[in-house]
Amino acid sequence: MNKKPGIIGRKIGCTQLFTADGTVQRVTVVQAGPLTVVGKRTVERDGYVAVVLGFEERKEKHTNKPLAGQFKKAGISPKRIVKELRCDEAFSAQYEVGAVISLDTLFKAGDTVDAQGRTRGRGFTGVMRRWNFAGFPRTHGTHEYQRHGGSIGTNMTPGRTLPNIKMAGQYGDETVSILNLTVARVDAVQNLLMIEGGIPGAKNTVVTVRHAVKARLAKGGVPRA
Amino acid sequence: MNTHPIIAEIEKAQLRSEFPSFRVGDKLRVHYKIIEGDKERVQVFEGDVIKQNRKGARSTFTVRKVSFSIGVERTFPLHSPRIEKIERIAEGVVRRSRLYYLRDLSGKAARIKDAKNG
Hints:
The complex is a heterodimer of chains A (about 220) and B (about 120).
Chain A: E1 7-18, E2 24-31, E3 35-41, H1 43-46, E4 50-57, H2 65-74, E5 79-86, H3 89-94, E6 100-101, H4 103-106, E7 112-118, E8 123-125, H5 127-131, E9 169-171, E10 175-187, E11 192-196, E12 206-211
Chain B: H1 5-12, E1 27-36, E2 39-53, E3 60-67, E4 70-77, E5 83-90, E6 92-93, E7 113-114
Antiparallel strand pairs in B: 1-2, 1-5, 2-3, 3-4, 6-7
């Protein structure tokens, strides 16, 4: 399990960075903070350890009363996004409720991370786009069947369409995690996290970035961070 | 769509403004650092600019030359730290922004009119 909680943030967009040797890194920029500790989960009370992080301000009149109570208890202004992230006791002990977590204590360049976001909704989508079916020939007598999926099963045996056959349907607007991305740069002043590669979702999507759960082991069998 | 101000700032920090301005059709000499193992040397690539892709820090330009009667094109990221120097040798007169037609020409026909010598 992760020792550090990771971040909740907002995808800003993509650009590129040059490394010192001139290699171009394609990065996604994430606004990752300032993150405030809204609450803590402890073994004694909850049976596990986690921190509850708050991100972005929210107007008081837009805050419902149960949430407002939590912010009042923590003595902080209302936050728009609140998320609980697991961490170990050593990390949790460093921060009081109400403290602001600095980004560079969580990530450094070169860390392997997992990013989670909600993909763009594409609505009801055909099999060619949703499942990469090949479709049918566009000529040679194909009649009104160019983008169809073809057969979905046999006749009398078993006499029904088997479960999990790929068909048209809702595509996108689902939570997707991309594992084992690399942190390219951390800007603790502006709270920017630059991650090599793409992150699911459109710009302004709320994303979660955590240390990789399945990171390949570095030399000597020690997990990276 | 407008670039997000934060992205614009990140890209602005990478810009290299020390190079001379040049346009499609110009003849350039690009001094490009080559890293071989732990050795580093500078290679010069001289030719005509046939394409420019102006996108802030992500800008690139393509230089074409004919080397031993084989056409060679190379695309450089304009703001790459591996470009040591760019020399503008000649200013060309061309009427389009992409000079792909040069690929089909050779010898005297593949010349670009010089702005100075008429």
